[in-house]
Write a structure and sequence with these properties.
2 strands, 67 residues, mainly alpha, globular
């Protein structure tokens, strides 16, 4: 199972979902879905924006779980 770690990354940097949506120009509903692992896909452009804004690697954002 693929797990998106966006909520964890935002919490660690004390950034609200609304603020992050503004910074990345990604719809707030998309940010919410990613934080709650309710997305069945994620656009490559969004991965790029997220990683650039959080100064992280794709491996920090996306993890594989045994579940």
């Amino acid at each position: 199972m693929v797990v998106i770690q966006l909520a964890k990354l935002l919490d660690a940097k004390h950034i609200s979902r609304a603020e992050f949506a503004k910074r990345t120009e990604i719809r707030p509903s998309t940010i919410s879905d990613l934080c709650n692992n309710k997305s069945s896909f994620i656009k490559l452009e969004h991965i790029s924006r997220i990683c650039n804004e959080l100064l992280c690697d794709i491996g920090d954002l996306i993890k594989l779980s045994d579940d």
